[in-house]
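Dear H.,

Thanks for agreeing to be a second pair of eyes. The structure we're designing against is below in token form, covering all 298 positions.
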């Protein structure tokens, strides 16, 4: 297996997801190419002020360089100083309607090289859902697709990657989950290259199956100022996670990636309040009591 086959899959995946989202939204994504000083570049596809998506991006990147950044070696310090090659597709979608959840998906491949030594390679990625107003049927659907996606890799694969997702997308300084999770994995290189590549292909190819029906079901739900206000407040948690804890954001910035493409994950309208909590018994409070609890949905 060569990295060219991975790259071809990722580029085709970006194109297919963008085409499907343009069908749902009715507005085209803006596309541009960028080059990274030091090696590589990428292709960004971004939508702003769409009919359905207030902001969203589906980005491809392929970068390489002489030394891995701290974010990539934090868990594997023995790789410090190696040259690297990394490629992936990363997307974040922020619908305008507060009843339609934000979603994130990412799949990536890393290779670290050193003279007179075998390359060290691994895959990473996953997808996760961040609702503002929770629907149990949406959560069940999203997690069922995640479970079905991973079933070919063993009965223990989904529970393991679901738990990994719950633990990773957690705001430690708030002591709360970012959303209702999904699946997540990193430093994945077992049992062999072909199986790992098959796994990321399954995740990428099933993203639309997991998310598109939810988006289409919720995008026209009536809402008012109250719902938009709560959505903006909860989006603040998304910003906090991405800027404080997310390894992907740090990797992109530390390797000199294109800042505009890296930070396309941030929502356009956000609010913070001092020491605010939703009223007990309110529909907003239900998000905390019934959904942000690390629940086993399937």
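And this is the sequence the design step returned. I haven't edited it by hand at all.
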């Amino acid at each position: 297996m060569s990295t060219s086959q991975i790259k071809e899959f990722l580029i085709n995946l970006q194109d297919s997801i963008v085409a499907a989202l343009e069908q749902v939204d009715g507005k085209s994504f803006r596309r541009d190419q960028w080059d990274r000083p030091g090696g590589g570049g990428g292709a960004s596809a971004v939508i702003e002020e769409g009919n359905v998506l207030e902001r969203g991006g589906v980005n491809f990147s392929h970068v390489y360089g002489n030394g891995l950044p701290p974010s990539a070696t934090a868990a594997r310090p023995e790789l410090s100083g190696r040259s690297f090659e990394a490629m992936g597709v990363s997307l974040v979608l922020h619908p305008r309607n507060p009843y339609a959840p934000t979603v994130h998906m990412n799949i990536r491949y890393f290779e670290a090289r050193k003279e007179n030594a075998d390359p060290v390679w691994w895959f990473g990625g996953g997808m996760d859902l961040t609702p503002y107003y929770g629907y149990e049927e949406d959560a069940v659907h999203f997690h069922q697709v995640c479970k079905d996606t991973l079933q070919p890799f063993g009965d223990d694969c989904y529970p393991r990657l679901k738990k990994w997702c719950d633990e990773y997308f957690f705001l430690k300084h708030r002591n709360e989950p970012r959303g209702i999770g999904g699946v997540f994995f990193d430093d994945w290189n077992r049992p062999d290259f072909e199986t790992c590549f098959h796994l990321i292909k399954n995740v990428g190819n099933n993203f639309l199956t997991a998310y598109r029906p939810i988006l289409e079901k919720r995008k026209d739900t009536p809402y008012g100022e109250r719902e938009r206000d709560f959505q903006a407040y909860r989006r603040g948690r998304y910003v906090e996670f991405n800027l404080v804890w997310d390894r992907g954001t740090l990797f992109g910035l530390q390797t000199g990636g294109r800042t505009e493409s890296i930070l396309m994950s941030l929502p356009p309208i956000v609010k913070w309040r001092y020491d605010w909590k939703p009223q007990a018994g309110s529909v907003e409070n239900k998000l905390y009591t019934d959904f942000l609890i690390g629940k086993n949905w399937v």
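Two observations from my side: The mean pLDDT is 94. The domain at 3-291 is CATH 3.40.1500.10 (oxygen-dependent coproporphyrinogen oxidase).

Warmly,
E.
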